[in-house]
Design goal:
Layout (H helix, E strand, L loop, with lengths): L5 E2 L6 E2 H8 L6 E13 L2 E9 L10 E2 L2 E3 L15 H11 L3 H19 L12 H6 L18 E7 L7 E10 L13 E7 L1 H9 L7 H13 L3 H9 L5 E2 L2 E4 L3 E6 L13
Parallel strand pairs: 3-8, 7-10
Antiparallel strand pairs: 1-12, 2-12, 3-4, 3-6, 4-5, 4-9, 7-8, 11-12
Length: about 280
């Protein structure tokens, strides 16, 4: 291990033959995405909402993930349509090192994906019955659901970028928020076969015991959350101090296996908190 990289657990590696097979495919285009960490207080501390993706999904099948997904065309219109105000877009642009339009798109994507996958709407509106299904089917857009999104509820947590050379790549902004009063996530999406609240430490323990599958970004974020606080308020406060720096895992080829390593700022306060 070099001084400027931290090796991830060996389980995240792969056989050299599988790595060579992946490397023979065309590299995928980098796609922007948003992921939302829903948190709540429970009797034993803070919990997060996790979806178990269906095993037949082309990407991350059978893996536990936070709600989220890639940007679509309507997300990119969030600023011009007034779904995100100028001040919020400008602030987010500084956080995510992008344009106001790009930041507004990330925020809109976070709201839309959370609604589509959990039924939780981060806006001052309670959508009518059937609206969620129509949004998923792209019969309507977010502008048809709400006039203004409650993006002030979204706090930045992390930014992970899929390694170069992979056939499916994402540049993902991780946000953290609590569920608005009177709402409860349900995980009723065709992309998942299960969903529920779980303490970060418990999710990590289940992963260690082989009872839960995780991807490196989710594992790393859960590791940070388990150490960042015992309540939703503590996690929100921690998120308010963060300025996520991009984390791009690097492959570590060996004779028989290929491992993954990340820069130290992928964990804890070294990820840019207070900077």
């Amino acid at each position: 291990m070099t001084t400027d990289l931290v090796d991830l657990p060996p389980r995240f590696g792969m056989e050299r033959s599988a790595f060579d097979k992946i490397g023979s495919r065309p590299a995928g285009e980098l796609r922007l995405a948003s992921t939302v960490i829903l948190v709540r207080d429970a009797a034993d501390g803070a919990e997060v909402f996790l979806l178990e993706r269906a095993g037949e999904m082309a990407f991350a099948g059978g893996v536990s993930v936070f709600p989220g997904g890639g940007l679509d065309a309507t997300d990119r219109e969030a600023l011009t349509e007034g779904l995100v105000d100028d001040a919020a877009a400008d602030a987010a642009a500084t956080t995510w090192a992008t344009s106001a339009e790009g930041a507004a798109a990330l925020l809109a994507c976070a709201v839309r994906e959370t609604f589509e996958e959990t039924g939780v709407m981060l806006a001052d509106v309670r959508p009518a019955e059937g609206v969620r299904e129509r949004l998923v089917a792209r019969e309507i857009g977010l502008r048809d659901v709400a006039e203004r999104l409650a993006v002030d509820r979204l706090r930045p947590w992390a930014r992970w970028i899929t390694p170069e050379g992979m056939p499916r790549r994402y540049d993902t902004a991780f946000f953290l928020t609590t569920v608005p009063e009177g709402q409860e996530p349900d995980g009723a999406t065709t992309e998942a076969v299960g969903a529920g609240w779980c303490a970060p430490a418990r999710a990590l323990r289940e992963w260690e015991e082989g009872r839960r599958a995780l991807m490196p970004p989710t594992w790393a974020v859960l590791t940070e959350l388990a150490e960042a606080g015992d309540s939703a308020d503590e996690l929100l406060a921690a998120a308010s101090r963060r300025r996520p720096r991009p984390v791009t895992p690097q492959f570590r080829p060996g004779d028989d296996r290929v491992g993954l390593a990340v820069p130290p700022h992928a964990f804890g306060t070294s990820s840019g908190a207070g900077q």
